[in-house]
Design goal:
With 379 residues, this protein is mostly beta strands. Helix content is 7%, strand content 40%. Pfam families: DUF3616.
Length: 379
């Protein structure tokens, strides 16, 4: 049975700053408006620092994914800042996110450009306006967990954006990496990271999306290039969600068989893209698999300045777009310029789902636990 979070309505604008800070460290619970009633939300306390490009807390947090709870009730999770070349292990312990230090908890994703252990071949001949050999920033945008063992063991996946840099138009090879991180729940340890270029093969050959692979993004809201913003695992498939393109109000999720991505002897053949009916200029910001087989879809502006209200939705990847339902419209982030950027599933039951959502902009990603009402899955 899921622990239902309490809902205490608090107007943050009426509280002094020192009290807000104290509430944050205590895991304060307060109401946020939503489409399906009033969901509860809890701002998680941070023990340690989520590391970013510079010294101090990360301000470009772009994703989070958690394994199921260990017997202690704690969850092992991975977070990423899109300006660095590593991911960071964190532990969700009730309403506290324990980050530790970079020295003890960083998970190296990038190695070197000529690393022979990276599976597949680096994509070349792309249409990005600026070509560089930079291999320092992953532009990590998608994180997912695949449970493969009865004890909760499995694999974390971390994906770069696989597109030209949004503002500079640079082609940075480091952004075209997908990594797999084994996780042993019995020992609570990670195994050796495996890296691959081969997701680019799937993007290059995909219907609708293929002609846009490796082309510059259109920051005016057009349907120029593509970039990955979220991933999830559905059985033996990687579901790849795109912030761009949005074509006439359609956003895209590309199912790709997982096995060939980390092998060398099989061709990587993507399935037909799933087309989700969204608003114009609304893009996918993250995906997360649920226990009942559905996938959460966090949406928001495709171009940064688009006037689009963020939403949390869900769909059944075995049915497709016809199963898409809106769970809630999300309130505007409190920090100027902040964006909802990542979501991870925690638990569901009693017609409700519990998640953690992180933001790009605030220090440490402002991780917040929400509980939403959710329609039952269609049989």
């Amino acid at each position: 049975m899921m622990n239902v979070l309490s809902c205490r309505a608090v107007r943050s604008s009426a509280l002094p700053s020192f009290l807000l800070l104290a509430m944050a460290w205590a895991g304060a619970t307060y109401a946020q408006p939503g489409a399906s009633g009033t969901p509860s939300s809890t701002l998680l306390a941070i023990d340690g620092v989520i590391e970013g490009e510079k010294s101090g807390p990360a301000e470009n947090v772009s994703g989070i994914s958690c394994a199921r709870p260990r017997p202690s009730g704690q969850r092992t999770c991975i977070m990423v800042d899109d300006e660095v070349g590593f991911a960071q292990r964190v532990t969700l312990d009730g309403n506290v996110l324990r980050a530790g230090s970079r020295a003890s908890n960083s998970v190296p994703i990038l190695t070197r450009l000529d690393d022979p252990e990276i599976r597949g071949r680096r994509p070349t001949g792309l249409g990005c306006p600026v070509h560089t050999g930079k291999f320092t920033q992953l532009d990590g945008e998608g994180i997912a967990f695949q449970e493969t063992g009865a004890d909760g063991s499995g694999f974390f996946y971390v994906s770069g954006s696989h597109g030209c840099s949004r503002n500079s138009g640079e082609e940075r090879p480091s952004q075209f990496i997908l990594a797999r991180i084994p996780y042993d729940a019995a020992t609570d340890r990670f195994g050796a990271v495996v890296r691959t270029w081969r997701l680019s093969e799937a993007l290059h050959t995909a219907a609708i999306l293929g002609p846009r692979f490796g082309h510059p993004l259109d920051n005016t809201g057009g349907d120029g290039g593509l970039d990955i913003e979220g991933i999830a695992v559905d059985r033996d498939r990687l579901l790849v969600g795109f912030r761009a393109p949005n074509i006439d109000g359609r956003a895209f999720i590309l199912p790709v068989p997982l096995g060939p991505l980390f092998a060398t002897e099989w061709a990587v053949v993507p399935e037909q893209p799933i087309e989700l009916p969204l608003e114009r200029q609304e893009g996918i910001r993250d995906l997360a698999s649920m226990a009942d087989g559905r996938v959460l879809v966090l949406t928001g502006p495709a171009p940064d300045k688009a006037d689009v209200q963020p939403r949390l939705m869900a769909f059944d990847p075995r049915i497709g777009a016809a199963s898409l339902v809106e769970i809630a419209k999300l309130p505007a982030p409190e920090s100027n310029g902040a964006k909802y950027e990542g979501v991870t599933f925690l638990e569901q039951g009693g017609g409700a789902v519990s998640v953690v959502i992180v933001q790009d902009g605030p220090s440490n990603g402002r991780p917040t636990r929400y509980q939403f009402s959710i329609p039952h899955r269609s049989p």
